Amino acid sequence: MRSCNLTHSLVLALCLTGLASARTLTRRDATFDWMNLTASTNLTLSPCYDIFQCARLTVPLQYSNASAGEAEIALVVLPANVSHDDPAYLGPLLFNPGGPGGSGVDAVVENAPVFQAVLGANFDVVGFDPRGVGHSTPALAFFESPAEALAFFAPYPLDANESASSLGRIVASAHLLDDLARARGGAIAESVSTPAVARDMLAITRAFGREKLSYYGVSYGSVLGATFAAMFPDNVGRLAIDGVANAHEWYQGDYFTKDSLTDADAALEDIYAACTAAGPPACPIFERTPALVRARVDRLVARVRAAPVPVFNASAAPPFAVADAALVVGQLLNVVGAPYGGARPFAEAVVALERGDGAPMVAGSTQALLAGLDTCAAASVPFAVGFIDVEAPIICGDSVVDTVKTLEEAGKEYEAMLEISDLATAWYPTTQGPCTGWTIRAKDRMNGSFETNTSFPLLIIGNTHDPRTPIANAHNMSSGFAGSVVLQQNSTGHTSQAGFSACTALALNAYFNNGTLPAPGTVCQTEDEIFGGATDSALRTRGLKRRDSGWPRGLRRAGL
Ligand SMILES: *[C@@H]1O[C@H](CO)[C@@H](O)[C@H](O)[C@H]1NC(C)=O
Ligand SMILES: *[C@@H]1O[C@H](CO)[C@@H](O)[C@H](O)[C@H]1NC(C)=O
Ligand SMILES: *[C@@H]1O[C@H](CO)[C@@H](O)[C@H](O)[C@H]1NC(C)=O
Ligand SMILES: *[C@@H]1O[C@H](CO)[C@@H](O)[C@H](O)[C@H]1NC(C)=O
Ligand SMILES: *[C@@H]1O[C@H](CO)[C@@H](O)[C@H](O)[C@H]1NC(C)=O
Ligand SMILES: *[C@@H]1O[C@H](CO)[C@@H](O)[C@H](O)[C@H]1NC(C)=O
Ligand SMILES: *[C@@H]1O[C@H](CO)[C@@H](O)[C@H](O)[C@H]1NC(C)=O
Ligand SMILES: *[C@@H]1O[C@H](CO)[C@@H](O)[C@H](O)[C@H]1NC(C)=O
Ligand SMILES: *[C@@H]1O[C@H](CO)[C@@H](O)[C@H](O)[C@H]1NC(C)=O
Ligand SMILES: *[C@@H]1O[C@H](CO)[C@@H](O)[C@H](O)[C@H]1NC(C)=O
Ligand SMILES: *[C@@H]1O[C@H](CO)[C@@H](O)[C@H](O)[C@H]1NC(C)=O
User: Which of 83, 274, 343, 413 is 20 to 30 A from 38 (CA-CA)?
Assistant: First the structure.
């Protein structure tokens, strides 16, 4: 299923993603077919993607019900540089790129040299597609065709303030997504919980003949890591989480409304301040003070809210788009997560739109990707977009409390979010909104405590201003996991990977290879500058939505 490229592109839209899921799989091996791999409960590895080994691991579809059937987890291994019987071999190291719904297979295939340089060459680096996702089967895929998915998403408001009926439409769509899932994917929809994925991680580790997990998880991957540590505290080998969500709130179904945006405005201010400091031409929307830069962007948002701009491009598919407030705020929300690579192309797109040219703003946007669904005619079915259709079953289904809301209750929840940041207009529709109609509860539930002694202390990483996972969450989770240490990376953006810090990279390397934790209170500076350096034209042509990770750029510069 899902041969359409857009399935992967749209993973960009996922809400809590770090580095690698923000990239399309460019090294897809056309001569390799996952379905040709025999799934098995032991690890039967076959060569794939040039230098990797692949396997499909059979696990229970529901750990709580042995008669519910099986699932097969797709995993890719970047082999360690030492043999398994070498005393220096450190076992498998699992990675999750976030989302939820991001493909760990794609992430590891795409970033293998980076992982080897930062995490160490004595591990087998393992990327796996969490159950329901990517190459794992059965798939969370509710649409019978891309055209049907387009019909569902075309009227879906990506800006809850777009019109008086936007919020109502979000709530109505949430109920429809639930109906679709019940009609076409009930068993898989109730089987994709984070606790079930945590159990899969133990199964993968055991398939390598080990009892203790080594794991690095960013963004949503922090919820997965914390869940594992809570459920299996005695099976923690090395566990680092980065760009940390508040897992207590996650399971109460209110993380996104309560405090995910806490530092979003501070992150935005960093970008505006960097613009003023960089001056023209490095920052194309330069004004004398950060407040004036902000006013300039806000003015554009207000202008296109009242008067959306038509964008016609005869060679694009489809050849038409409209640049409106939802588009600009959506792109702003992306840029605030990836300011080091994204701020300059965004500023250039602002200038173009001020002149009446909306094409650069449209490039790479969620709107453009959704509109392009009809170019997926050859996609196999059932079809998943990899947007809220994959996120909602995981985010909403994880909640131990009912998330269904009346329109009035949804309005209150949305207003509370707006009080934290105006970026909520674009954040609500892609995070909490879809839960307002979701009735399906996960079968495998969270079981354990986030206050526990783990068999090895956790490394917990947070940025000074992370717009989706404020650093307060890192401290909150750390207070529960005995002996864990918070490393603060003094940068802006979502997860430490948004900007490069040699200090953070070395700390990760020392933790995984030597078991060394940084001293409590460690602050790592970043070597990246927002608006610093030359325009990355490659990034620009790839579109704003591509969050260029700080890691590959930083390692290239550092010669690693
Ligand atoms: C899958 O297996 C079949 C049967 O062994 C083989 O003919 C086909 O070439 C394989 N496809 C790929 C892409 O490996
Ligand atoms: C692994 O599983 C396969 C298929 O289930 C089986 O043929 C093989 O003997 C197993 N290998 C080991 C070492 O258990
Ligand atoms: C377990 O799964 C089977 C097959 O779907 C189902 O018939 C049965 O009711 C389930 N049992 C429980 C306790 O949910
Ligand atoms: C691991 O082995 C590969 C291939 O032999 C080599 O290119 C790479 O530099 C090695 N990495 C480390 C960290 O030793
Ligand atoms: C028009 O679309 C084509 C195809 O997507 C793209 O390569 C080109 O850059 C676009 N033109 C402008 C002005 O954005
Ligand atoms: C969104 O709409 C509400 C009223 O519906 C209004 O109070 C709020 O200021 C608007 N916010 C933004 C950022 O447009
Ligand atoms: C929760 O974990 C405990 C200890 O591992 C176990 O005894 C219990 O059965 C688990 N409960 C559920 C619902 O999985
Ligand atoms: C962790 O271990 C310490 C020392 O053994 C003990 O005092 C404490 O109660 C334990 N904490 C938890 C949450 O189990
Ligand atoms: C962590 O967050 C939860 C949920 O917001 C809160 O109840 C708890 O008091 C926090 N713990 C600490 C130590 O701040
Ligand atoms: C973080 O970096 C800023 C400059 O970018 C600096 O002013 C500030 O002191 C740094 N904070 C810490 C805690 O190192
Ligand atoms: C490795 O660990 C030892 C003992 O904990 C420590 O003394 C040493 O500094 C560590 N080395 C590195 C490179 O972190």
Answer: 83
Residue 525: nearest ligand to its CA? 10
pLDDT of 16: 62
Point out the ligand 1 atom lying closest to the alpha carbon of residue 31.
Answer: 13
* Cα(361)–Cα(334) distance, integer angstroms: 12
Whether the CB-CB separation of 481 and 515 falls below 8 Å is answered with: no
Encode 214-256 in three state secondary structure.
Answer: EEEEECHHHHHHHHHHHHCHHHEEEEEEECCCCHHHHHCCCHH
CA-to-CA distance for 131 and 138, rounded, in angstroms?
Answer: 8
Q: Which tens digit of pLDDT belongs to each residue from 342-371?
A: 999 999 999 999 999 999 999 889 898 888
DSSP strand pairing (98-99 vs 92-96): unpaired
pLDDT at 17 over 80: no
Write the DSSP string, 68-87.
Answer: G-EEEEEEEEE--SS-TTST
Smallest CA separation from ligand 11 atom 6, residue: 516
Extract the tokens encoding 437.
């109609």
| Cα 542 from chain centroid (whole Å) | 18
Please enumerate in sequence order all residues whose Cβ is within 8 A of that of 490, keeping only pairs 6 or more positions apart, or say none. Answer: 463, 464, 523, 524, 525, 526
Q: What is the DSSP pairing of strand 52-60 with strand 98-99?
A: unpaired
**CA 176 to ligand 3 centroid distance, Å:** 25
Give yes or no for a cis peptide into 100 (omega within 30° of 0). Answer: yes
Nearest-CA residue for atom 14 of ligand 9: 476
Which residue's alpha carbon is nearest to atom 1 within ligand 6?
161
C-beta of residue 132 within 8 angstroms of C-beta of residue 254: no
78 CA to centre of ligand 4 in angstroms: 11
Concatenated DSSP letters for 521-547?
T-EEE-S--TT-SS--HHHHHH-TTS-
- Interatomic CA distance for residues 215 and 462, integer angstroms: 17
Instruction: For residues 478 and 191, give the distance between their C-alpha atoms in angstroms, rounded to a whole number.
Output: 29
Q: Count the Cβ atoms, other than its own, within 10 Å of residue 291.
A: 13
The answer to whether residues 468 and 336 touch, using CB atoms and an 8 Å cutoff, is no
Strand partners, 77: 53, 126
Dihedral of CA atoms 207, 208, 214, 216 in degrees, nearest 10, equals -70
User: Is the CB of residue 120 less than 8 Å from the CB of residue 509?
Assistant: yes
Domain ranges within the chain, ordered by starting residue: 264-367, 460-558
Round to whole Å and give the CA distance between 234 and 407: 44
The two tokens of residue 267 are 């992150």
Query: Could you give the CA distance from residue 251 to residue 216 in angstroms, rounded to a whole number?
Result: 21
Q: What average pLDDT does range 213-230 have in this prediction?
A: 98
Evaluate: CB of 36 within 6 angstroms of ligand 1. Answer: yes
Give the distance (Å) from ligand 1 centre to CA of residue 29: 13
Q: What is the DSSP string of 360-410?
A: HHHTT-HHHHHHGGGG-TT--SSB--SSHHHHHHHHHHH-SS-----HHHH
